[in-house]
């Protein structure tokens, strides 16, 4: 399995806060879990690990099993600029409404972090992260796709191929997604 190399621009305090949150998540799962919890990471947290851009306070993730994540589970930390922040798992995140390639989880990259035994973090590969942003395609999503392109992690040709393949299994407004894809590819050059 390929590993994600955390961006040199990522805030070390954010990475530590994420590590702490993963440890707390594992403790909440209790000893009844004999195999590691597999977390598939998307959204702003994935963006931060890839590019160091756009720190987010919520973790968009799905898991390989049903977990009850306490609503008050958060880690408070100070970012590199000294600003007080908090980090929590978004209990409302649901990738069912996103455009998602059927192999997105299998192709995700492993995020190796010391000290999180019992939690295996996998981050959507950059092209799947971009594809997942096409259905909603807010200004933040569009900016994230541009940022992935500027970092040299995706290009329009790969995005178009992966998105068109993902649309075969998508139940939603294909015309809207195609418009988003056209704009995203134009942004990528």
Number of strands: 6
Q: How many structural domains are formed by the residues?
A: 1
What is Rg?
A: 16 Å
Distance between the termini: 30 Å
The helix tally amounts to 6
Average pLDDT level:
93
Relative helix content: 25-40%
Topology pattern, helix = H, strand = E: HEHEEEEEHHHH
**Sheet bearing the most strands, described?**
6 strands, mixed
Report strand %: 15-25%
**Overall spatial form:** globular
Class from helix and strand fractions = alpha/beta
Strand order of the largest sheet: 3-4-2-1-6-5
Give the uncertain stretches in residue-range form: none
Tell me about this structure.
Helices cover 39% and strands 16% of the residues. By secondary structure, the protein is α/β, with parallel strands linked by helices. β5 (109-111) and β6 form a beta hairpin. α3 (126-132) packs antiparallel against α4. The protein starts with 11 loop residues before the first helix and ends with a helix.
Secondary structure topology:
Layout: H1 12-29, E1 37-42, H2 43-51, E2 58-63, E3 74-78, E4 84-89, E5 109-111, E6 119-123, H3 126-132, H4 139-150, H5 156-167, H6 174-188
Parallel strand pairs: 1-6, 2-4
Antiparallel strand pairs: 1-2, 3-4, 5-6
Helix pairs in contact: 3-4, 3-5, 5-6
